[in-house]
Amino acid sequence: MATINDNYLKLKAGYLFPEIARRVNAFAQINPDAQIIRLGIGDVTEPLPEACRTAMIKAVEEMGNRETFKGYGPEQGYAWLREKIAQHDFQARGCDIDASEIFISDGSKCDCGNILDIFGNNNTIAVTDPVYPVYVDTNVMAGHTGDVNEKGEYGGLVYLPISADNNFTAQIPSQKVDLIYLCFPNNPTGATASKEHLQAWVEYAKANGSIILFDAAYEAFISDASIPHSIYEIPGARDCAIEFRSFSKNAGFTGTRCALTVVPKTLTGKTADGSKVEIWPLWNRRQSTKFNGVSYIVQRGAEAVYSEEGKAQTKALINFYMENAKIICDKLTQAGISVYGGVNAPYVWVKTPNNLSSWDFFDKLLNTCNVVGTPGSGFGAAGEGYFRISAFNSRANVEEAMKRITERFTVA
Ligand SMILES: *Cc1c(COP(=O)(O)O)cnc(C)c1O
After folding, report:
1. Residue with CA closest to ligand 1 atom 15
2. How much is the mean pLDDT over the chain?
3. Does the CB atom of residue 185 touch ligand 1 within 6 A?
4. In the list 57, 159, 228, 368, which could disulfide-bond 233, CB 3.0-4.6 Å?
5. CB of 257 shorter than 6 A to ligand 1
6. Are residues 346 and 234 in the same domain?
7. HEC profile of 163-215
8. Domain co-membership, 285 together with 321
């Protein structure tokens, strides 16, 4: 009989979202008239920008014409898209990134997992706690961890706790780690990193020969001019960082699928026998072998994000979600609840009042206000006592949910 990858059996059973659904369904059974509002969603709700739709319709027409039809495109993505990204997202911010260092893909979630293909199996890996679960689970699948303990922590991973005590930015570890996942602006905490904080990470990585895997999926939500959008705004980052970006959250591409990964040509790792090797050719080979590119139509849609109309329309989308975030922060604060994030990120990270556990707060919010969010403990042990509320929703839902909380929720 064929054997399986035993590492999959180490994965904690999907617990968070099924348990949320179970509790919401049980509540709805007993209270069939309750109008439940879901503020737990990590998916966009507003339609695609018109500029993107127009570009994709035009591309569909091109596909219907023998002269303009496209078959397989470059595995790395079309040069016209990579050049726009290099100019607008990187060079315009002073980042020394060339179009040839950008790889177009069908998602950052996939890239974050796939990148492990090109790294060895004996690296020490650091993640923050709480964390975007993809970073952890893909390492479990690759066999980079031991078993999970009762707190949900996997043996062999280095967990860097983040909380209000450290401003939701992890302390630079005293031990040496080889790969570090950083996500700024952060999902789930909504926290951002200052230039100084990222500089400290880059210095650490260069001193220890580590590589930073920097997830910038939410960079477009930054409004504070002092906060870096890219790790490459930090001098030296070209030698120690890979950056992941996505069109999912800034342009509503969660269902359309387009993202990118930056692998600088100056980035190196070492072989088992200690000789230095460039990383770029490995990722290029990996993508050319296992991936056949993103649809021409979708890449034309992504390109339109950089047109004048596209820029204005994506900005309007982001402003819409960030107004939701402001309403959430203002109303919760009025209700006597402490909130973090929600200023440069579409997530509000709530400190549960009276030291309620994340799940007790979930139940209380569901029962008194019929509002659903995400328990912080679902993102890691250090998320206990916190709760994530997402700004991805209609204005009407956000206003109604906040009205109920202000009227019905009592902190005591
Ligand atoms: C939404 C999100 C992404 C984007 O994933 P895609 O696969 O590009 O849709 C990446 N990282 C984090 C932390 C996210 O929340």
Report:
1. 187
2. 96
3. no
4. 228
5. no
6. no
7. CHHHCCCCCCCCCCCCEEEEECCCCCCCCCCCHHHHHHHHHHHHHHCCEEEEE
8. no
